[in-house]
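Journal club prep — side note

Before the paper discussion, L.F. wants everyone to see what a predicted structure for a comparable chain looks like in token form. Sequence:
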Amino acid sequence: MDLLRIIINIMSIIILENCLTRTEALVAARGCAIATSSDFSVFCEYLEDFSEILQQLDAEQIQKTDSMLYVGLVKDGKISKNAVPVPKLQKLSMTIYNLTSIEENAFSNLENLEDLSLAGNLQFDTIKPKAFGNLHKLQRLDISQCNLIALEKNTFLSLTNLKFLDLSLNRITYLHPEVFHPLTSMESLNIKRNDLKSIPSMLFFHSHNLLRVNLAYNEIKTLGEYVFRRKNIAASNGKENDWSTIQELEIDNNFEIMLDEDVFWFLSNVENLSLTNMNLTRLQKKLFENQLKLKSLNLADNLLKDIDQTVFESMEQLQRLNLSRNHIESLPEKIFKSNKQLSTIDLSYNQLKTIPERLFATLNFLETLDLTNNALTILSSSFFQDIKNLKFLTLDGNQIPFIQLGLLNNLAYVTDFSLVGNRLLAIEDGAFIKLNSLVNLDLSYNRIQILGPKLFETSDDDKKNKFSRLLILRVDFNELTQLHSETFTPLTLLRVLSMASNKIRKLDENTFNSLGKLENLDLEPNVFQNLNNINTINLKTNKLKALNKGVFDNVPSLQTVILTSNNIVDIDEETFRQSNITTVVLNDNSLTRINPGVFEYTKLQQVNIDFNPWQCACLDPVLETIKRQKIEFRLKNLPFSFDGQIPCCIVTRNKVCFTDPIVTFNLHKEFLQSLYPYAFYISQYVFTSSICLNDDYCPELDVPESDDE
């Protein structure tokens, strides 16, 4: 509690500093202050008793206020009868007030109070009957984050105009069946994160205006019979009914709950219903029989395996359905027959192996379909036949080996299409021929070896469109070995092209000539033209072996080139001279030497050349040139303790810089093997029998010397 008091004091000080804008008076004796900005407020850091506020501050001024009164810490946390004689007050906050109890009619002098907050009083565990007496105008009451255990019958007796009640984050285990009956105007009730094990019958019997109820994160096992039933009143058609007015209901994360077949019968007006993470194993046929106005149903994170085809039959207005993270293996073909208004379906993270051909036959308004992480293999040619207005399609994490011609022909309005993590080996030319609205396409983490020359070509009837809307294309972590010169020709507005971690070794000369709007390229470059806006090229984890002269010359805005984890053994002396590149990352390659002229007559400001198998004799002139050109360099990612200026390198026999690439062909592999331990054996005719550190650079590291040196 001492720690809690310290935290509360700190929070009070912060509130005080942030909220007091125009302080008229500060009473030093108890740390109270008046702020008169837009609202009249009183802040008290610490008091012996609540009544001291009136003694220390201008009582007449407080009594005239019609705005807000804020009270901080009080030693004696009791609020006695008529403790706040401020009849015009509209808002009262006793957040983190050290409150322990409220006597009957404690606020009886606040007949105009509309907003009362008692949140964060961790010692407040009981509300006495009639504690809120005479608060007939109160509309908002916050008693969250306290320590309440039970709510008795007359707790809210006089709050007939209350609209918002927050009881979340308490320890409530008991609700009297009639505790909410006086709250006939209540619109929103939040009881989430308590310890309720049951909800009594008829709890909302007099809740004639209740719209939102949150019962999530409790320990509810049963919902009483007729728990959502309302007292009979005349409906708009003159007939009496006992249907609840609730429109939003959350019962999430009640793990042991049992739902009777008719538990939701009186929720005929509910529009949003959330039943996630409740260990539900089945849905009774009549469970949702009377949910005629339901628009959103969330059943994610349950244990559903099979679903009867009639369970959603009454939901003709349903728009959003979430069945993700269940154990569903199959779906009846006509399960969505009556749900013609559905716009979003989430079936991700289930065990679906097949989808009935006409499952979506009636869903003309479907815009979002997520089938991520199922076990789908073959999609029939008519799979997307009836969902012509689809915009977002996700098929990630399945086992789809190919996309047959015609499968996607009805998806003319799809903007985002993802096939990440399947088993695609190839995509036939023409497979995307009708996807004229596509903006974002992700084919990463497959086994694609080639992208055909007409993959993105559109039909002859729509030549002027030519995939002009596609902005993002990702084909990372595939098995591409080459790119055809015509593949990207239609993609004139492409902004992002990512092909990292492939096996690209060859590019046709005109591969990227049409990509004049490209801003981010992540693949092996060759001959770049008309790439005026690109500023970063990321070529990490490819198979590049060399950088040729002029490769970046036609990319005027290019500043950063990332070449990490390739197989680069050589860089042409004029590679960077005609470019505006300022940063080059060459770590983790196969460089044993570089012509020092690579770093002369350039605009380079930073280079990273660590984690390469450098020959010490070759590295000396390179470092001298880098320093002379005032280029910042990094060599500190090795397992050794470098400070950024001391590189690790291999001492060759007689300290000769060998330039023959054949000699250094396997050096990188052996260099990596040598790091643990530091000694290793390689060809005697070139190197000494141990890897060691150039004494000029790393004198502090003790490395065993060979007998041959």
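L.F.'s comment for the group: The CA atoms of residues 154 and 652 lie 91 Å apart. Keep this in mind when we get to the figures.
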